[in-house]
């Protein structure tokens, strides 16, 4: 159940959880730090992503066909290129010059489809595995209806480079280390990101995360406020893959 009324319309969005497996420890995830001036989640650590644009729907209709998540997959691919300079879900893998041209064109506002066609690239959206969907219901300035996808870092991909507009930093870090940094006061994470990091911290590899995702059909998560005894909690449903389902409202940063 929702805890507020008179909600603003939700903005469709997509985000990508990009895995880099390690032989000597848990996988690293690609993390961006939002610029502090940003209205939504300013200063917080998040996964690359953003709103689904009208062209994403048009491209999905032309190139993907019957896939309810098609436009969201394209948005996640596009946003990861824009924000981190890493191309996932494209065939063939763009070389350095193509990637630079693609990212520069996106930053200049050129259509994604035209850029791909001009560079001889096509979409390979099957590389993205649906993981979660979050749709908060609280009276905030912006509410995002966000689909989360998992993907593996392509072989030969470059190191990420921050876009230095919406974000101030981009880096690789394990899910548990991000949580630990937040607990130590070295980082800020919003409620949806924390819950997903806790879920992702369970996996020793990308393959394990994919197996888990495919055994838990995507369920829309809408957190609610609940009082239990003397404590007011922000809650999500049990039984959909999240090991932690409550957080005291006193410490929760809603998103």
Structure, described:
The protein has 255 residues and is an alpha+beta fold. Helices cover 29% and strands 28% of the residues. The protein contains 7 helices and 13 strands. The strands form 3 sheets. Strands 1, 2, 3, 4, 7, 8, 9 and 10 form an 8-stranded mixed sheet that branches. Strands 11-12-13 form a 3-stranded antiparallel sheet, with no helix packed on it. It is globular, with a radius of gyration of 18 Å.
Write the layout of secondary structure elements.
Elements: E1 10-22, E2 25-34, E3 45-46, E4 49-51, H1 54-63, H2 70-84, E5 90-91, H3 96-107, H4 112-118, E6 122-123, E7 129-134, E8 143-152, E9 167-174, H5 175-183, H6 191-200, H7 206-215, E10 220-221, E11 224-228, E12 231-235, E13 246-248
Parallel strand pairs: 1-8, 7-10
Antiparallel strand pairs: 1-2, 1-4, 2-3, 2-9, 5-6, 7-8, 11-12, 12-13
Helix pairs in contact: 1-2, 5-6
